[in-house]
């Protein structure tokens, strides 16, 4: 059963602040960041999408050693196997050959599986019984929703449009994260091949308040206490913030990524499919600029994500931001480099 209309999921969880420190798969959501966020009274969230079952278990155990406060786990909903014809792969190899030469990487061998096995990850989540399970990129299959409910785990889906929010509500989620176009990282659009509605958070919230009856979580471009207050006043029951926490002392953000976030005082971001095959927002860099001009060389999600991983690894090793996915939202201002707990206090002053 979904939450009653007037209930506040976040009070029920015993959070001091209605804030989810966003799950940020791929490094930034370190054990330290998740544990510190939860210990400070927000909801820390593990971005488990790229982790196998053993890694998710180890991560959760390490968080548990640092805090007994509620934590969430987040996964990507799968969409079947992306079709990669030999011809498309050839074009992708050609489009990136110059970069692999520069990074001294061998020619890529793209083999299945392109992503972690969702059902195995999901079983691990059920076993770990986090305070919340959140997901992105679509609806959770009906039998999975049933199992999460049976396990008593609150369920949070992600929507980028009113239609997606409606579908999530009907599927039985306990809360919906409304992700505005301003958000850093992957757009939660259900259909990976669809055009982006590009709806900003303010409009999306206005459309959903009153139309959606489960609690709404506002995400996208929120950086300050004022932003948080505005989202809560506009009808969100909680906020989810990623970019604001990327340079925190505890974040697992790599050195070249961190440097780029801090030096770009007016972080110029846009959405691109270049890194993973799905739209995601990040700071403009060479890979994004050049690949966006040769879209025929970009594979479908999640094949492209696997295909470009070696380049991201080599770029990090070289200390270069040129080939990194520098996920960041549109929010301006200097990023907080102190402890996450101090940032959280400032946001709710
Ligand atoms: C580095 C990074 C990684 C992200 N990874 C995930 C993820 O694994 N799962 C998810 O649901 N959202 C992910 N997001 C999106 C966030 O949940 C959220 O929508 C976004 O951070 C909000 O916008 P903001 O970055 O402007 O605060 C990520 C965002 C960033 C910046």
What's the SSE blueprint?
Elements: H1 9-12, E1 19-21, H2 31-39, E2 43-47, H3 53-66, E3 71-76, H4 86-102, H5 118-128, E4 132-136, H6 142-150, E5 155-159, H7 162-171, E6 175-179, E7 185-186, H8 201-208, E8 216-219, H9 225-233, E9 238-241, H10 255-263, E10 269-272, E11 280-283, H11 286-291, H12 303-307, H13 309-318, H14 340-347
Parallel strand pairs: 1-2, 1-9, 2-3, 3-4, 4-5, 5-6, 6-8, 8-9
Antiparallel strand pairs: 7-11, 10-11
Helix pairs in contact: 2-3, 3-5
The structure holds flavin mononucleotide.
Flavin mononucleotide (FMN) binds next to strand 7 and strand 9.
Report on the architecture of this protein.
There is one protein chain. This protein has 14 helices and eleven strands. It folds into two domains: 1-78 and 116-248 and 335-349, Aldolase class I (TIM Barrel, Alpha-Beta Barrel), CATH 3.20.20; 82-114 and 268-327, no CATH class. The protein is globular, with a radius of gyration of 19 Å. It has an eight-stranded parallel β-barrel with strand order 1-2-3-4-5-6-8-9, surrounded by seven helices. A three-stranded antiparallel β-sheet has the order 7-11-10, with no helix packed on it. With 349 residues, the protein is an alpha/beta fold. Mean pLDDT is 95; it is low at 1-6. Strand 2, helix 3 and strand 3 form a beta-alpha-beta unit. Helix content is 37%, strand content 13%. The protein binds flavin mononucleotide.
């Amino acid at each position: 059963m979904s939450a009653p209309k007037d209930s506040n999921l976040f009070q029920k969880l015993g959070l001091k602040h209605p804030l989810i420190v966003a799950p940020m798969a791929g490094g930034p959501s370190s054990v330290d960041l998740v544990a510190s966020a939860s210990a400070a009274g927000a909801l820390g969230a593990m971005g488990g999408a790229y982790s196998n079952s053993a890694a998710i278990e180890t991560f959760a155990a390490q968080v548990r050693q640092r805090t007994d406060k509620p934590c969430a786990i987040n996964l990507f909903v799968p969409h079947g196997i992306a079709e990669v014809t030999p011809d498309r792969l050839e074009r992708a190899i050609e489009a990136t050959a110059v970069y692999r030469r520069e990074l001294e990487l061998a020619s890529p061998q793209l083999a299945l599986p392109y992503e972690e096995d969702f059902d195995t990850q999901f079983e691990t989540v059920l076993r770990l019984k986090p305070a919340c399970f959140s997901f992105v990129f679509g609806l959770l299959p009906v039998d999975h929703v049933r199992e999460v409910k049976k396990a008593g785990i609150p369920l949070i889906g992600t929507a980028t449009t009113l239609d997606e929010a409606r579908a999530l509500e009907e599927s039985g989620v306990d809360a919906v994260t409304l992700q505005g176009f301003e958000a850093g990282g992957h757009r939660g659009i259900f259909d990976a091949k669809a055009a982006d509605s590009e709806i900003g958070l303010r409009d999306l919230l206005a459309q959903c308040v009153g139309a959606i009856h489960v609690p709404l979580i506002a995400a996208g471009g929120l950086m300050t206490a004022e932003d948080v207050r505005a989202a809560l006043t506009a009808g969100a029951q909680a906020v989810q913030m990623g970019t604001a926490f990327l340079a925190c002392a505890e974040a697992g953000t790599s050195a070249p990524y961190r440097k780029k976030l801090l030096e770009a005082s007016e972080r110029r971001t846009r959405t691109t499919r270049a890194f993973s095959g799905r739209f995601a927002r990040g700071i403009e860099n060479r890979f994004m600029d050049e690949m966006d001009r040769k879209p025929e060389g970009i594979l479908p999600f999640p094949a492209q994500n696997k295909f470009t991983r070696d380049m991201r690894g080599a770029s990090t090793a070289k200390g270069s931001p040129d080939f990194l996915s520098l996920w960041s939202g549109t929010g301006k201002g200097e990023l907080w480099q102190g402890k996450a707990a101090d940032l959280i206090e400032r946001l709710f002053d």
